[in-house]
Sequence to fold (298 residues):
Amino acid sequence: MSGKNAYQTFVDYLLSNSQNMTPQRATIVGAFLETEGHFSSEDLYHKVRKTEPGIGQATVYRTLKLLVRSGLADCFDMGEGVTLYEHAYDHPHHDHLICTRCGRKEEIVDETIERRQVELAERSGFTLSRHRMFLYGLCPVCRRKGIKD
Amino acid sequence: MSGKNAYQTFVDYLLSNSQNMTPQRATIVGAFLETEGHFSSEDLYHKVRKTEPGIGQATVYRTLKLLVRSGLADCFDMGEGVTLYEHAYDHPHHDHLICTRCGRKEEIVDETIERRQVELAERSGFTLSRHRMFLYGLCPVCRRKGIKD
DNA sequence: TTAATTGCAAATCGTTTGCTGAAAG
DNA sequence: CTTTCAGCAAACGATTTGCAATTAA
Fold:
């Protein structure tokens, strides 16, 4: 049902911007909604192609942009040259913990840090609007492997 | 004198990797050392060109890579499609506070946050090796302007 | 002399854009 | 009808790479 609401939110976004729902957009949004975790535009493109081979890559890029603007998706760039997307609808803010060996990503949040960030910003006179935090390290599995190697 | 040591550190790095100091590298490293704040490879390229118009862009890219490996420089990508560099020699870890309007960047650190990050990672079984944190907001100057507008 | 380095231009790669025909309201 | 779309291919912009000529050790 979260899917239903999310989809409707997207349709509403389109309507309120004099933009149309189209078969292609419906397909892409559908694929987006059933994709968990972090993925690139290209990942989604490949997924969509399995169902609708006619869809162009540009359409996926354009639709992902709409998804972000509509609030359904969030995107971030970890500096690897690719933009990653994730669900933002019914999915509160969080940061990322990334394994530098296997690439596994975990979502994390910490109230203390969130609060400190606002204080820190204010101390410099800034009004904080958002932030991005990436923690890099070895995940338990990879650490164990590392010891064996 | 920090400049002297930094330069020597770079030369040592080259020597220990059977790489040579060259006039081009010396020029680029010199320009790098006298550039404060955050800058892109292209920024440095333009600066270097004023002195040595013959230097190629690829050489600047290549030398910046060496500067990072030697520990003189640190680089990060804020997702704007450009890699930014800054001094890392005699310049301890810090995070960034960025004005979303004028782009001004301030360096920040907070012991509480740093400590919490390690704890958070450990709670997930990760061994933290490094992190990146960007706080985005309106700087005091821009906020004031915003009110007037 | 031998390995490392340079500058240039061509190649990459993810992403964006211009364009023309097609479709939505 | 009028505007918004889609698909394609070309354009882009930052960065990398292949290569032949040059230089450092």
Q: What stands out?
A: Chain B has two domains: 6-87, 95-144.
